[in-house]
């Protein structure tokens, strides 16, 4: 069972803070990250402080002459990188989906029907529309007629 803090964490987290943290790590410090974003250094420092407060731990060691990522910061950076990678894939995953045929088709047929043509049509349909699923029910002839009516 998750502790109340663990349950609230994803809802309280400002996802932009993760992105800012990644840039701080990638750029090797607060000032280079500020230059990257075109912001002032105190803005980036405040964002990092907010993320550390939310995470409940120190993520980087910093002083005027020193910058390093803490072990917990390295864990957060690795996970944030995975999240960023997944989010980066969304446009590709979603592109063209509106053109794809999806759905469910139910087919009712009599058990005595054998048709190579029907089998070929189903094979072509499946190749053209792989995101469509279908079920085939074998029923009595009168039930097929009832389904059609």
TrEMBL record:
GO-annotated molecular function: DNA-binding transcription factor activity; transcription cis-regulatory region binding
Domain HTH lysR-type, residue spans: 13-70
Pfam families documented for this protein: HTH_1 (PF00126)
Coiled coil: none
Annotated keywords: DNA-binding, Transcription, Transcription regulation
UniProt keyword DNA-binding present: yes
InterPro entries according to UniProt: LysR_HTH_N, WH-like_DNA-bd_sf, WH_DNA-bd_sf
Statement: the UniProt record of this protein carries the keyword Transcription: yes
Family indicated by similarity: Belongs to the LysR transcriptional regulatory family.
Protein name per UniProt: HTH lysR-type domain-containing protein
Lineage, top ranks: Bacteria, Pseudomonadati, Pseudomonadota, Alphaproteobacteria, Rhodobacterales
């Amino acid at each position: 069972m998750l502790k109340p803090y663990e349950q609230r964490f994803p809802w309280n987290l400002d996802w932009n803070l993760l992105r800012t943290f990644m840039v701080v790590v990638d750029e090797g410090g607060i000032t280079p990250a500020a230059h990257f974003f075109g912001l002032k250094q105190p803005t980036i420092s405040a964002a990092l402080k907010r993320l550390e407060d939310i995470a409940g731990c120190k993520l980087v060691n910093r002083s005027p002459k020193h910058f390093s990522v803490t072990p917990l910061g390295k864990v957060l950076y690795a996970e944030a990188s995975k999240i960023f990678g997944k989010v980066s894939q969304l446009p590709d995953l979603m592109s063209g989906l509106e053109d794809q045929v999806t759905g469910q088709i139910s087919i009712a047929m009599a058990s005595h029907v054998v048709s190579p043509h029907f089998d070929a049509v189903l094979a072509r349909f499946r190749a053209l529309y792989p995101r469509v699923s279908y079920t085939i029910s074998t029923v009595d002839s009168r039930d097929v007629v009832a389904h059609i009516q």
